[in-house]
Hints:
Chain A is α/β, with parallel strands linked by helices and 805 residues long. Chain A has 3 domains: 15-355, Rossmann fold (3-Layer(aba) Sandwich); 382-591, Thiamin diphosphate (ThDP)-binding fold, Pyr/PP domains (Rossmann fold, 3-Layer(aba) Sandwich), CATH 3.40.50.970; 608-800, Rossmann fold (3-Layer(aba) Sandwich), CATH 3.40.50. The first copy, chain A, is 36% helix and 13% strand. Chain A has 26 helices and 22 strands. Chain A has a 6-stranded parallel β-sheet with strand order 12-9-13-14-16-15, sandwiched between helices. The first copy, chain A, has a 5-stranded parallel β-sheet with strand order 1-2-3-5-4, with helices on both faces. In chain A, helix 7 (181-186) links the parallel strand 2 (167-174) and strand 3 (200-207). The model of chain A is unreliable at 796-805 (pLDDT under 50). At the A-B interface, helix 7, helix 9, helix 15, helix 21 and helix 25 of A face helix 7, helix 9, helix 15, helix 16 and helix 21 of B. Chains A, B: Keywords: Lyase, Thiamine pyrophosphate. Chains A, B: It is an enzyme of class 4 (lyase). Chains A, B: Its cofactor is thiamine diphosphate. Chains A, B: Belongs to the XFP family. Chains A, B: This is Probable phosphoketolase.
Amino acid sequence: MQITSPHPTNPTDDLDLLDRYWRAANFLSVGQIYLLDNPLLREPLEPEHIKPRLLGHWGTTPGLNFIYAHLNRAIQAQDLDVIYVCGPGHGGPGMVANTYLEGSYSEIYPDITRDADGLRKLFRQFSFPGGIPSHAAPETPGSIHEGGELGYALVHAYGAAFDNPGLIVACVVGDGEAETGPLAASWHSNKFLNPAHDGAVLPILHLNGYKIANPTLLGRMSDAELKCLFEGYGYEPLFVEGSEPAAMHRQMADALDVALASIRSIQQNARQPDATVERPRWPMIVLRSPKGWTGPKEVDGLKVEGFWRAHQVPIANPRGKPEHLALLEAWMKSYQPETLFDAQGRLVPELQALAPKGARRMGANPHANGGLLKRELKLPDYRGFAVEVTSPGKTIAEATRELGKFLREVITLNADNRNFRIMGPDETASNRLDAVFDVTERVWMEGIEPYDVHLAHDGRVMEVLSEHLCQGWLEGYLLTGRHGLFSCYEAFIHIVDSMFNQHAKWLKVSRELPWRRPIASLNYLLTSHVWRQDHNGFSHQDPGFVDLVANKKADIVRIYFPPDANTLLWIADHCLRTYNRINVIVAGKQPAPQWLSMKDAATHCDAGIGIWSWAGTEPADEEPDVVMACAGDVPTLETLAAVDLLRKDLPDLKIRVVNVVDLMTLQPRSEHPHGLSDRDFDSLFTADKPVIFAYHGYPYLIHRLTYSRTNHAGMHVRGFIEEGTTTTPFDMVVLNELDRFHLAIEAIERVPGLSVSAAHVKQKFRDALIEHARYIRAHGEDMPEIRDWVWPNSSGGTTPAQAGD
Amino acid sequence: MQITSPHPTNPTDDLDLLDRYWRAANFLSVGQIYLLDNPLLREPLEPEHIKPRLLGHWGTTPGLNFIYAHLNRAIQAQDLDVIYVCGPGHGGPGMVANTYLEGSYSEIYPDITRDADGLRKLFRQFSFPGGIPSHAAPETPGSIHEGGELGYALVHAYGAAFDNPGLIVACVVGDGEAETGPLAASWHSNKFLNPAHDGAVLPILHLNGYKIANPTLLGRMSDAELKCLFEGYGYEPLFVEGSEPAAMHRQMADALDVALASIRSIQQNARQPDATVERPRWPMIVLRSPKGWTGPKEVDGLKVEGFWRAHQVPIANPRGKPEHLALLEAWMKSYQPETLFDAQGRLVPELQALAPKGARRMGANPHANGGLLKRELKLPDYRGFAVEVTSPGKTIAEATRELGKFLREVITLNADNRNFRIMGPDETASNRLDAVFDVTERVWMEGIEPYDVHLAHDGRVMEVLSEHLCQGWLEGYLLTGRHGLFSCYEAFIHIVDSMFNQHAKWLKVSRELPWRRPIASLNYLLTSHVWRQDHNGFSHQDPGFVDLVANKKADIVRIYFPPDANTLLWIADHCLRTYNRINVIVAGKQPAPQWLSMKDAATHCDAGIGIWSWAGTEPADEEPDVVMACAGDVPTLETLAAVDLLRKDLPDLKIRVVNVVDLMTLQPRSEHPHGLSDRDFDSLFTADKPVIFAYHGYPYLIHRLTYSRTNHAGMHVRGFIEEGTTTTPFDMVVLNELDRFHLAIEAIERVPGLSVSAAHVKQKFRDALIEHARYIRAHGEDMPEIRDWVWPNSSGGTTPAQAGD
Lengths: 805, 805
């Protein structure tokens, strides 16, 4: 694109001032990496002024500072509301330097004053024990993005822009990050951004040509190929290229003005009454500048500026080598700090004047501290969506379908606030949440055909076949103060394991920072789960995400296995009310017996675990012979069916049934706030009776959660043991020995003395397994008596009667 | 691109025959989804001929069949060596149908004969208990790719093509899959493919417009935008678009001929003597065809063909609804099976003649059963790379740097075979494996500048800032019979958790299929690990990958924590010799004390676990008071330092030191073939003494592995508890309470009676922790006495003396 600036006069002296501001930021960045003391170089630089360990990344930083300074100029000139997503998060010194220069840093950290003493502390704390991390992090004002693990800058930026019509999210994408898969897909987010209702994302692809030790793919591509690539993605790229600062300032100012004018024009057009909105061609900037720009050209005879050697600490040993020390001093002095800071060490007034004011400062923008802007999510009374359960097992319902009705109402209640979205990889209907489409649509900015279903330019549901995008959009949306739910096939949530890790880390640190206000929890609904992927087969069968989740800090994570629809409703309602957490709800979508009335569900979920006395056979005043425990809807069904078998064939066996909804109750209270006390645990699981535990996922997790409990040696856990294929639903549990027969057989074997006397019963169950295997191979479906089994106290499965719908 | 076919005459009757072949494949695909019996519809279709549960995906299948038929034609015409990577793996019926038609299926599964009876079995077994999965899977001849979890087709294709100069990998990318991040990045793999030495990848982007319940992003993009996008990625797209079969056959045949001619021309040019190879513009095909092509146009009044309703089973209930049954019968008969199969149910000879012969059939291509082609990796004697260790702790070395020297020799020995590659996300040098650059380079097909370092068009090292690409390339490379190593920062290997899962599943099933020959193991080197990410901070600190790994089938996975260089060498040598496994090696790269001579290392690693009697203080004939166990290099260091503290201050305490290299030894033998017997376990860990276990990762894993051991209640595990930031190395272990002082204090507290008498010692250790905290906050580095601590029996750290180098 030929750049024609709509603001044709940027007086040169403005850009001269801007250049000085940039130099100040560069000076502070170098200072953070290197200096313990002598921050303004008012004395000759000595080895003892240098940190003993040099930890930080210079290479990307001058480019980040350059962009920051230019965004400041635009914000000032046009009174813009902008946040800065820094993809190359390891350029932390730049983000800290800029927020310090604009004053937002010292407001949050008053100890880091805007004078020479504050500068000294600012430098010293960076990458220093007890100080601040080397990366942009929760500690960094204005940041919603760590950038430690690369790939998510652009998807976070889009998440922040949705439903924020006044906001511009400037997003710097490094050329290293641009090689990652999630980032490569993120460019397509423009197909989901509505210029009428959403804000704008301004991607700035920062090509400095190198990563740690290699050139970058995009850095080595020609402008012609890059232009083609990004036009193909649907953008209008503006190129800013060079290394001579004055010319680069002019180019960048012009490009930014063109881009912002283009954004304004797109939004104005889309926001006309009766506008017919089509996906616009949004602008983006491709900035080619040298890696380690303005740093040393060579060190020890090797090329540094404009090469990967500038990536981290360009001058390795100024504390030990006098020539390195001299080089560092010359480098820092090249920024002319005496022209940037006054006698007290304060930024000179003409440079201070360049920074935006108040909440317009990118380090003080409330969108980047989303809890400040968060409105409570309005929730309907979940009891109004109860499935009527007059006796356990009588009603048949699809748990997620009932949840869909609740979510429909959540969408309606919050429609005006536009602060709730549901993300999913093409699975909202497949996961049976489709009641939401009664009141909203899927967002889609591409063409819509007359026969398309539930697609619109505006909608609360976002579907794309990328778990990375779903997760990243939602993170960006939550971090800027909104609410949401991510519904996903259970197996494929592993695709975002690492994104989950990073979000958990962000929350862990954020919670320790009083100035960061709480944000809404990240809520996962994992459905189409392992036990009902009988049709898609082994690749779709993996319940291990919760194992990863359980590794995280206890106050961050929750894991729920509601066994039926009413418990799912209670848990979902609860999760949507929480803050600063990651809630994982695992629930099935298939028709299944319902166990608890809403009243009983509320009591059960509130405790998180409990004895289902209606299912057991223990007398009131005696200990049971065996505890049959279960967590998860299918394990609960199989456990109850096993109890039914045992009750019929061994009527004297004293069975207790324990159901676990909140997995964290199993941990000791010292490990997790939801953990049961040992006394309560023992009262549920006994001190020494066999416990046959049917668990939804890999059995090891239960052992790990309960290893220190009194009766741990008595816990016999069955779960998914990595056996599966395309088969029948019941065969899936048989393959993993989690079915009613295996459970009943183990109960018989574990109860002392019973094994021998009940040998014939065991044999009967074994025969039933063989018969089942023969039957399904002959008929291709489960035996009717298994498929249609109902809990004996109920009078047979019926369709759900809705209490509130 | 204007298509000009270099084979201008494809006689129409050829394409008519080809169309019939396609119809045969479509007929067989529908039959697999629906029919239990009456495979050739020679009787009227009855409800009892229909499967009770209809599990399969029709939508993508006709397009896959169309491509297969056209590839057959090209293979026949030009005698090509082609494998077919089927991205939409849920189009399994198509892959099965085609391998059946060409005869490769019946060769592998002789029970599925090429006649009416075989057809009946073929149909019946699909998605049927005891039969075959609904997706392309290990069971599918000619497949190296499951396609259940989407995103990896193209990266697998490139992995297969590297170092296979005669091979063409046809790779079908569905437009659903094309939305994923890994796939979006995979297009850039062309920057790593050398036309002189590698084979070709022919991507066929199959746009049928829809995923499960939505249009696709790429399907709705205009041809102009698509052309731009793929030209930007560096390809030359050829468009084939329409729905009328005859015209589509003509277009596709022409496009394929053009593409193959282009590939031939690129390769011929590159393979000239003295050719200067530049990255060529490889051809690709964009095929737009209707979803569910040739299926029912409408069902129950709703659009099906050309819409997402065709995704799975287009006619829902032919067993229950007569009008559905009639519709299905009419659909199947529309393929005119009576013209395709003879009286015995065999494909008619003129159609049989269209399929390639022998190993040219894509279902019989040996590259897709890589174990057939695999050559043993030549390995040097690892003992030649030993670090000299005359007494424990005396030598200082960097473990991965020593491994790099071994790998250098591996590369040299296998240079002629061109069957070993090292993958890494820009980290080979950072991970200190850079000795390999003595003998090879990083592959790079983009421009190379004079100042670039170790870049070349040919090389054994592949670096890209995408863990997805590294993993996917390596999988494709291994699955086609070669060898490799993936070196990665420990924290970011979580990015490929889900790819690991899928590869483990592939191996698990492959091992159960005798015709699938063993392939080389997937070897991970995880370094730059949690304890030495003190400079990058919290986002880079995550040791949880092994928790995921430990969930998988025991005979597939191995996890190793070599504590020093010689043990790392032994383990790496061992892993590179194994087959059909996933080996995870976690090892540090920082200078660290060396504990074992190569002889001792071999003994120790061979056992996988052992008592380090030189470090302990237990008398020969007495039980120890406490066992100090460790797994991982940093935990080993801290454990020995703790033992040193205890030996000095509590000389009477009887300490046993146990080091664990092979984590799987901790499991019961019933769970893992490497597991210790209970007797051996007890002899190491005692039946009842306190065990202070310093573990590299999340402590829960040790509990989970050992929960059933006699002394489990005595196991006190310390590990990473999710505390970290940018700080000093020793502070990292202190923050997680894994340091020598915490270990020593816990030992004192756990040994009965000692806690009171040794109160002053505990206090001394606590004071040391406080002093450490003060010191690092003042100085920014660890106290010299901690940093420079050496095992007391050694005479101080020295640089390594190389035995064999």
